[in-house]
Write a structure and sequence with these properties.
Elements (H helix, E strand, L loop, with lengths): L4 E2 H14 L5 E4 H4 L8 E2 L9 E2 L3 E4 L5 E8 L12 E5 L11 E4 L4 E3 L2 E3 L6 E2 L10 E3 L7 H9 L4 E4 L4 E7 L3 E2 L9 E2 L2 H11 L3 E2 L3 E4 L3 H12 L4 E5 L10 H7 L3 E5 L1 E4 L5 E4 L5 E5 L3 H19 L8 E4 L11 E6 L15 H4 L3 E5 L10 E5 L7
Parallel strand pairs: 1-21, 6-7, 14-17, 14-18, 14-19, 15-16, 19-23, 21-25
Antiparallel strand pairs: 2-13, 3-12, 4-11, 5-7, 5-8, 6-10, 9-10, 20-22, 22-23, 24-27, 25-26, 26-27
Helix pairs in contact: 1-7, 4-7, 5-6
Family: Belongs to the MoeA family.
Pfam families: MoCF_biosynth, MoeA_N
Pathway: Cofactor biosynthesis; molybdopterin biosynthesis
Length: about 400
Protein backbone atom coordinates (compact mmCIF):
# COMPACT_ATOMS: atom_id res chain seq x y z
CA UNK A 1 0.00 0.00 0.00
CA UNK A 2 1.52 3.31 -1.09
CA UNK A 3 1.18 6.63 0.70
CA UNK A 4 -2.21 8.15 -0.18
CA UNK A 5 -2.33 10.95 -2.71
CA UNK A 6 -3.82 14.30 -1.67
CA UNK A 7 -7.51 14.66 -2.51
CA UNK A 8 -7.11 17.72 -4.76
CA UNK A 9 -4.20 16.04 -6.54
CA UNK A 10 -6.25 12.86 -7.00
CA UNK A 11 -8.94 14.83 -8.87
CA UNK A 12 -6.35 16.46 -11.11
CA UNK A 13 -4.49 13.21 -11.73
CA UNK A 14 -7.64 11.32 -12.72
CA UNK A 15 -8.73 14.15 -15.04
CA UNK A 16 -5.30 14.38 -16.70
CA UNK A 17 -5.25 10.62 -17.30
CA UNK A 18 -8.65 10.82 -18.98
CA UNK A 19 -7.77 13.89 -21.03
CA UNK A 20 -4.61 12.23 -22.34
CA UNK A 21 -6.68 9.17 -23.35
CA UNK A 22 -9.61 11.07 -24.95
CA UNK A 23 -10.74 9.99 -28.38
CA UNK A 24 -9.51 11.96 -31.37
CA UNK A 25 -13.06 13.05 -32.10
CA UNK A 26 -15.41 12.34 -34.96
CA UNK A 27 -18.58 13.70 -36.51
CA UNK A 28 -21.30 12.57 -34.15
CA UNK A 29 -25.09 12.93 -34.29
CA UNK A 30 -26.30 15.66 -31.97
CA UNK A 31 -27.59 13.26 -29.31
CA UNK A 32 -24.27 11.39 -29.20
CA UNK A 33 -22.25 14.62 -28.96
CA UNK A 34 -24.32 16.13 -26.15
CA UNK A 35 -22.30 16.47 -22.95
CA UNK A 36 -18.89 16.04 -24.57
CA UNK A 37 -16.47 18.65 -25.88
CA UNK A 38 -16.10 19.88 -29.44
CA UNK A 39 -13.09 18.13 -30.98
CA UNK A 40 -12.73 20.84 -33.65
CA UNK A 41 -14.12 24.35 -34.10
CA UNK A 42 -17.74 24.65 -35.18
CA UNK A 43 -18.02 26.71 -38.35
CA UNK A 44 -20.99 28.10 -40.27
CA UNK A 45 -21.97 26.06 -43.33
CA UNK A 46 -23.64 29.15 -44.85
CA UNK A 47 -24.31 32.77 -44.05
CA UNK A 48 -26.42 33.05 -40.91
CA UNK A 49 -29.05 34.10 -41.71
CA UNK A 50 -28.73 33.00 -45.32
CA UNK A 51 -31.10 35.74 -46.53
CA UNK A 52 -32.73 38.89 -45.21
CA UNK A 53 -35.30 37.80 -42.61
CA UNK A 54 -38.15 39.82 -41.17
CA UNK A 55 -37.93 40.42 -37.41
CA UNK A 56 -41.58 41.47 -37.09
CA UNK A 57 -45.10 40.76 -38.29
CA UNK A 58 -46.14 43.63 -40.49
CA UNK A 59 -45.89 45.09 -43.99
CA UNK A 60 -42.95 45.20 -46.39
CA UNK A 61 -43.04 48.44 -48.37
CA UNK A 62 -41.09 50.11 -51.19
CA UNK A 63 -40.90 53.79 -52.18
CA UNK A 64 -42.88 56.60 -50.55
CA UNK A 65 -46.25 55.94 -48.90
CA UNK A 66 -49.07 55.49 -48.54
CA UNK A 67 -48.61 52.09 -50.14
CA UNK A 68 -51.03 50.09 -52.22
CA UNK A 69 -51.47 46.57 -50.85
CA UNK A 70 -50.56 43.60 -53.05
CA UNK A 71 -52.60 40.41 -52.71
CA UNK A 72 -51.36 37.54 -50.58
CA UNK A 73 -48.73 37.51 -47.87
CA UNK A 74 -45.08 36.59 -47.47
CA UNK A 75 -44.82 33.67 -45.08
CA UNK A 76 -41.83 31.89 -43.57
CA UNK A 77 -40.61 29.15 -45.88
CA UNK A 78 -41.58 30.85 -49.15
CA UNK A 79 -39.58 32.80 -51.73
CA UNK A 80 -41.40 36.11 -52.30
CA UNK A 81 -41.83 38.05 -55.50
CA UNK A 82 -40.06 41.46 -55.66
CA UNK A 83 -42.13 44.51 -54.79
CA UNK A 84 -42.06 47.80 -56.67
CA UNK A 85 -42.26 51.45 -55.53
CA UNK A 86 -45.52 52.42 -53.86
CA UNK A 87 -46.43 48.82 -53.11
CA UNK A 88 -46.83 46.87 -49.85
CA UNK A 89 -47.20 43.21 -48.97
CA UNK A 90 -48.02 41.60 -45.64
CA UNK A 91 -45.07 39.72 -44.12
CA UNK A 92 -44.65 37.31 -41.20
CA UNK A 93 -41.82 37.13 -38.68
CA UNK A 94 -39.05 34.92 -40.01
CA UNK A 95 -40.09 35.28 -43.66
CA UNK A 96 -37.65 36.23 -46.40
CA UNK A 97 -37.80 39.96 -47.11
CA UNK A 98 -38.87 40.62 -50.74
CA UNK A 99 -36.37 42.20 -53.10
CA UNK A 100 -37.02 45.93 -53.39
CA UNK A 101 -38.19 46.32 -49.78
CA UNK A 102 -37.09 49.63 -48.24
CA UNK A 103 -38.76 49.31 -44.86
CA UNK A 104 -41.13 47.34 -42.66
CA UNK A 105 -44.21 48.66 -40.85
CA UNK A 106 -44.99 46.79 -37.66
CA UNK A 107 -48.49 45.33 -37.73
CA UNK A 108 -49.43 47.17 -34.53
CA UNK A 109 -48.28 50.50 -36.00
CA UNK A 110 -49.99 50.18 -39.37
CA UNK A 111 -53.15 51.99 -40.48
CA UNK A 112 -55.14 50.34 -43.25
CA UNK A 113 -57.75 52.28 -45.25
CA UNK A 114 -59.32 50.48 -48.15
CA UNK A 115 -56.51 49.03 -50.23
CA UNK A 116 -53.80 51.27 -48.78
CA UNK A 117 -51.55 50.97 -45.73
CA UNK A 118 -49.55 53.62 -43.92
CA UNK A 119 -47.35 53.93 -40.85
CA UNK A 120 -43.75 54.42 -39.68
CA UNK A 121 -41.14 52.27 -41.38
CA UNK A 122 -37.85 50.82 -40.16
CA UNK A 123 -35.29 48.29 -41.40
CA UNK A 124 -36.52 45.65 -38.97
CA UNK A 125 -34.96 42.65 -40.58
CA UNK A 126 -31.84 40.56 -40.07
CA UNK A 127 -29.31 41.09 -42.83
CA UNK A 128 -27.68 38.06 -44.56
CA UNK A 129 -24.59 37.07 -42.58
CA UNK A 130 -25.50 39.33 -39.67
CA UNK A 131 -24.80 36.54 -37.17
CA UNK A 132 -22.07 34.74 -39.12
CA UNK A 133 -20.55 34.41 -42.57
CA UNK A 134 -20.12 31.06 -44.32
CA UNK A 135 -16.96 29.39 -43.02
CA UNK A 136 -16.70 31.63 -39.95
CA UNK A 137 -15.71 29.95 -36.69
CA UNK A 138 -18.70 29.98 -34.38
CA UNK A 139 -17.33 28.09 -31.37
CA UNK A 140 -13.84 26.87 -30.44
CA UNK A 141 -12.69 23.31 -29.93
CA UNK A 142 -12.93 22.18 -26.32
CA UNK A 143 -16.27 23.86 -25.61
CA UNK A 144 -18.91 21.64 -23.99
CA UNK A 145 -21.73 20.55 -26.28
CA UNK A 146 -24.92 21.84 -24.65
CA UNK A 147 -28.47 22.07 -26.04
CA UNK A 148 -27.86 25.69 -27.21
CA UNK A 149 -24.69 24.53 -29.01
CA UNK A 150 -26.77 21.90 -30.80
CA UNK A 151 -29.34 24.55 -31.73
CA UNK A 152 -26.62 26.80 -33.17
CA UNK A 153 -25.12 23.91 -35.12
CA UNK A 154 -28.49 23.08 -36.64
CA UNK A 155 -29.16 26.73 -37.51
CA UNK A 156 -25.72 26.90 -39.11
CA UNK A 157 -26.56 24.00 -41.41
CA UNK A 158 -25.07 20.96 -39.66
CA UNK A 159 -26.47 17.51 -38.94
CA UNK A 160 -23.49 16.37 -36.85
CA UNK A 161 -20.90 17.86 -34.53
CA UNK A 162 -17.14 17.19 -34.33
CA UNK A 163 -16.93 15.85 -30.78
CA UNK A 164 -15.23 13.41 -28.47
CA UNK A 165 -17.49 10.41 -27.94
CA UNK A 166 -18.91 9.56 -24.54
CA UNK A 167 -16.96 6.67 -22.98
CA UNK A 168 -18.65 3.35 -22.29
CA UNK A 169 -18.64 2.32 -18.63
CA UNK A 170 -19.66 -0.81 -16.74
CA UNK A 171 -19.99 -1.54 -13.04
CA UNK A 172 -18.74 -4.81 -11.51
CA UNK A 173 -20.04 -5.57 -8.01
CA UNK A 174 -17.89 -7.80 -5.79
CA UNK A 175 -19.12 -9.62 -2.70
CA UNK A 176 -20.60 -12.96 -1.64
CA UNK A 177 -22.49 -11.15 1.11
CA UNK A 178 -24.66 -9.13 -1.30
CA UNK A 179 -28.30 -9.72 -2.20
CA UNK A 180 -29.99 -8.32 -5.31
CA UNK A 181 -33.53 -8.56 -3.93
CA UNK A 182 -35.41 -8.83 -0.68
CA UNK A 183 -34.27 -7.49 2.69
CA UNK A 184 -30.94 -7.84 4.45
CA UNK A 185 -30.87 -10.94 6.65
CA UNK A 186 -28.76 -13.87 7.81
CA UNK A 187 -25.48 -12.02 7.44
CA UNK A 188 -26.21 -10.84 3.89
CA UNK A 189 -27.10 -7.28 2.85
CA UNK A 190 -28.88 -5.71 -0.09
CA UNK A 191 -26.57 -4.32 -2.74
CA UNK A 192 -27.13 -0.58 -3.18
CA UNK A 193 -24.16 0.19 -5.42
CA UNK A 194 -25.14 -2.02 -8.33
CA UNK A 195 -28.43 -0.13 -8.83
CA UNK A 196 -26.98 3.31 -8.00
CA UNK A 197 -23.53 3.64 -9.56
CA UNK A 198 -24.55 3.20 -13.23
CA UNK A 199 -26.83 6.23 -12.84
CA UNK A 200 -24.00 8.23 -11.29
CA UNK A 201 -21.81 7.31 -14.25
CA UNK A 202 -24.52 8.25 -16.74
CA UNK A 203 -24.97 11.62 -15.01
CA UNK A 204 -21.19 12.10 -15.21
CA UNK A 205 -21.24 11.59 -18.98
CA UNK A 206 -20.74 7.87 -19.61
CA UNK A 207 -22.73 5.38 -21.67
CA UNK A 208 -23.68 2.67 -19.19
CA UNK A 209 -25.29 -0.73 -19.05
CA UNK A 210 -26.51 -3.01 -16.26
CA UNK A 211 -24.10 -3.87 -13.44
CA UNK A 212 -22.34 -7.23 -13.45
CA UNK A 213 -22.47 -9.37 -10.32
CA UNK A 214 -22.42 -9.77 -7.44
CA UNK A 215 -19.18 -11.58 -8.28
CA UNK A 216 -18.08 -14.32 -5.89
CA UNK A 217 -15.10 -13.65 -3.66
CA UNK A 218 -12.43 -15.62 -5.53
CA UNK A 219 -9.53 -14.32 -7.58
CA UNK A 220 -10.61 -16.35 -10.61
CA UNK A 221 -14.11 -14.87 -10.56
CA UNK A 222 -12.73 -11.35 -10.14
CA UNK A 223 -10.39 -11.74 -13.10
CA UNK A 224 -13.11 -13.22 -15.30
CA UNK A 225 -15.53 -10.40 -14.43
CA UNK A 226 -12.94 -7.71 -15.15
CA UNK A 227 -12.06 -9.23 -18.52
CA UNK A 228 -15.72 -9.54 -19.44
CA UNK A 229 -16.47 -5.93 -18.56
CA UNK A 230 -13.32 -4.57 -20.22
CA UNK A 231 -14.27 -6.25 -23.49
CA UNK A 232 -16.86 -3.57 -24.28
CA UNK A 233 -16.09 -0.71 -21.87
CA UNK A 234 -13.58 2.13 -21.68
CA UNK A 235 -14.05 2.31 -17.91
CA UNK A 236 -14.91 -0.41 -15.42
CA UNK A 237 -15.94 0.64 -11.92
CA UNK A 238 -15.65 -2.08 -9.31
CA UNK A 239 -17.24 -1.96 -5.88
CA UNK A 240 -15.52 -3.41 -2.83
CA UNK A 241 -12.24 -5.26 -2.49
CA UNK A 242 -10.01 -2.17 -2.55
CA UNK A 243 -8.22 -3.05 0.71
CA UNK A 244 -6.05 -6.10 1.41
CA UNK A 245 -8.38 -8.27 3.51
CA UNK A 246 -8.81 -12.03 3.16
CA UNK A 247 -11.43 -11.71 0.38
CA UNK A 248 -10.12 -8.51 -1.23
CA UNK A 249 -8.88 -9.79 -4.58
CA UNK A 250 -9.01 -6.60 -6.65
CA UNK A 251 -5.30 -5.77 -6.44
CA UNK A 252 -4.30 -9.25 -7.51
CA UNK A 253 -6.92 -9.20 -10.28
CA UNK A 254 -5.52 -5.91 -11.59
CA UNK A 255 -2.12 -7.56 -11.89
CA UNK A 256 -3.67 -10.52 -13.72
CA UNK A 257 -5.26 -8.26 -16.37
CA UNK A 258 -2.08 -6.21 -16.75
CA UNK A 259 -3.36 -2.97 -15.20
CA UNK A 260 -1.03 -0.42 -13.61
CA UNK A 261 -2.01 2.07 -10.93
CA UNK A 262 -2.70 5.67 -11.82
CA UNK A 263 -3.34 6.27 -8.12
CA UNK A 264 -3.82 3.95 -5.16
CA UNK A 265 -5.58 5.34 -2.07
CA UNK A 266 -6.49 8.98 -1.48
CA UNK A 267 -6.00 11.05 1.67
CA UNK A 268 -9.71 11.70 2.20
CA UNK A 269 -12.28 10.66 4.80
CA UNK A 270 -14.54 8.91 4.12
CA UNK A 271 -13.44 7.07 0.98
CA UNK A 272 -9.73 6.51 1.61
CA UNK A 273 -9.24 3.08 -0.11
CA UNK A 274 -10.14 4.09 -3.68
CA UNK A 275 -7.92 3.48 -6.70
CA UNK A 276 -7.59 4.08 -10.42
CA UNK A 277 -5.67 1.79 -12.77
CA UNK A 278 -5.05 1.66 -16.51
CA UNK A 279 -4.64 -1.37 -18.77
CA UNK A 280 -2.03 -1.73 -21.48
CA UNK A 281 -4.63 -0.92 -24.16
CA UNK A 282 -5.62 2.34 -22.44
CA UNK A 283 -8.77 1.28 -20.61
CA UNK A 284 -9.44 2.29 -17.01
CA UNK A 285 -10.48 0.44 -13.87
CA UNK A 286 -11.74 2.52 -10.93
CA UNK A 287 -11.88 0.66 -7.64
CA UNK A 288 -14.66 2.06 -5.44
CA UNK A 289 -14.79 1.11 -1.75
CA UNK A 290 -17.61 -1.19 -0.74
CA UNK A 291 -19.20 1.19 1.76
CA UNK A 292 -21.87 3.14 -0.16
CA UNK A 293 -20.99 6.69 0.85
CA UNK A 294 -17.28 5.99 0.37
CA UNK A 295 -18.07 4.64 -3.10
CA UNK A 296 -19.90 7.85 -3.99
CA UNK A 297 -16.94 9.88 -2.77
CA UNK A 298 -14.72 7.82 -5.07
CA UNK A 299 -17.02 8.66 -7.98
CA UNK A 300 -16.83 12.35 -7.07
CA UNK A 301 -13.06 12.26 -6.58
CA UNK A 302 -11.81 10.02 -9.36
CA UNK A 303 -14.50 8.88 -11.75
CA UNK A 304 -16.25 12.16 -12.59
CA UNK A 305 -12.93 13.94 -13.33
CA UNK A 306 -11.75 10.97 -15.40
CA UNK A 307 -14.95 10.96 -17.47
CA UNK A 308 -14.66 14.72 -18.04
CA UNK A 309 -11.15 14.26 -19.37
CA UNK A 310 -12.18 11.36 -21.60
CA UNK A 311 -14.81 13.64 -23.16
CA UNK A 312 -12.30 16.45 -23.73
CA UNK A 313 -13.77 18.67 -21.03
CA UNK A 314 -11.92 20.59 -18.31
CA UNK A 315 -11.70 19.38 -14.73
CA UNK A 316 -15.20 19.83 -13.23
CA UNK A 317 -15.13 22.91 -11.00
CA UNK A 318 -16.12 22.72 -7.37
CA UNK A 319 -19.17 24.64 -6.22
CA UNK A 320 -19.21 26.61 -2.98
CA UNK A 321 -21.43 26.79 0.08
CA UNK A 322 -21.61 28.84 3.27
CA UNK A 323 -21.67 26.64 6.34
CA UNK A 324 -24.42 27.02 8.92
CA UNK A 325 -22.43 25.24 11.61
CA UNK A 326 -18.90 24.21 12.53
CA UNK A 327 -17.35 21.28 10.66
CA UNK A 328 -14.28 19.55 12.10
CA UNK A 329 -11.23 18.51 10.12
CA UNK A 330 -9.77 15.01 9.81
CA UNK A 331 -6.11 15.68 10.53
CA UNK A 332 -3.85 15.09 7.54
CA UNK A 333 -6.81 13.97 5.43
CA UNK A 334 -9.29 16.08 3.50
CA UNK A 335 -12.68 15.80 5.18
CA UNK A 336 -15.69 15.53 2.85
CA UNK A 337 -18.63 16.36 5.10
CA UNK A 338 -22.23 15.87 4.00
CA UNK A 339 -24.21 19.12 4.10
CA UNK A 340 -27.70 20.13 3.07
CA UNK A 341 -28.44 23.12 0.76
CA UNK A 342 -28.52 25.42 3.80
CA UNK A 343 -25.01 24.41 4.81
CA UNK A 344 -26.06 22.26 7.77
CA UNK A 345 -24.34 18.97 8.50
CA UNK A 346 -26.51 15.95 7.99
CA UNK A 347 -27.13 13.07 10.32
CA UNK A 348 -26.67 9.50 9.08
CA UNK A 349 -23.37 10.44 7.48
CA UNK A 350 -21.40 7.27 8.21
CA UNK A 351 -19.51 5.74 5.30
CA UNK A 352 -21.92 2.77 5.18
CA UNK A 353 -25.01 5.03 5.11
CA UNK A 354 -26.96 6.58 2.26
CA UNK A 355 -29.78 8.26 4.19
CA UNK A 356 -27.88 11.51 4.72
CA UNK A 357 -26.52 11.50 1.17
CA UNK A 358 -30.02 11.21 -0.29
CA UNK A 359 -30.90 14.69 1.02
CA UNK A 360 -27.50 16.35 0.61
CA UNK A 361 -26.33 19.23 -1.54
CA UNK A 362 -22.94 17.54 -1.65
CA UNK A 363 -19.77 17.32 0.39
CA UNK A 364 -18.26 20.35 2.09
CA UNK A 365 -14.52 20.21 1.47
CA UNK A 366 -12.47 20.75 4.63
CA UNK A 367 -8.76 20.98 3.81
CA UNK A 368 -6.16 18.87 5.64
CA UNK A 369 -4.96 20.14 9.00
CA UNK A 370 -7.87 22.59 9.24
CA UNK A 371 -11.47 22.96 10.35
CA UNK A 372 -14.34 25.22 9.25
CA UNK A 373 -16.60 27.43 11.32
CA UNK A 374 -20.21 28.48 10.89
CA UNK A 375 -20.36 31.29 8.35
CA UNK A 376 -17.29 30.14 6.41
CA UNK A 377 -17.61 29.76 2.65
CA UNK A 378 -16.03 26.46 1.57
CA UNK A 379 -15.75 24.39 -1.58
CA UNK A 380 -18.61 21.97 -2.28
CA UNK A 381 -18.03 18.71 -4.11
CA UNK A 382 -21.32 17.86 -5.82
CA UNK A 383 -22.59 14.41 -6.77
CA UNK A 384 -23.28 13.69 -10.46
CA UNK A 385 -26.99 13.95 -11.13
CA UNK A 386 -27.72 15.82 -7.87
CA UNK A 387 -28.55 19.52 -8.05
CA UNK A 388 -27.23 21.44 -5.01
Amino acid sequence: MTDPIRWAEARETAWAAGFAARSEGSDLPFAAALGSALAAPLTAASDLPAFATSAVDGWAVAGPGPWRVDAGAVLAGSVPEPIGPGRAVKIATGAQVPEGTEGLIRLEHATVEGNEVGGPTAREWREPGEEARAGEELLPAGLAVTPPVIGLAAAAGHLTLPAHRRPAARVVVFGDELLTEGVSEKGRVRDSLGPMVPHLLAAAGAETGPSLGPVEDTLEAHVAALRSALADADLVCTTGGTMVGPVDHLHAALAEVGAEYVLNTVAVRPGFPMLLARTADGKFIAGLPGNPQSAVIAVVTVVAPLLAGLRGLPLPPLASIRLAEDVPGRGAFTHLALVDPAGRRLAHHGSAMLRGLAGAAGFAVIAPESAAAAGDAVDLATVPGVTP
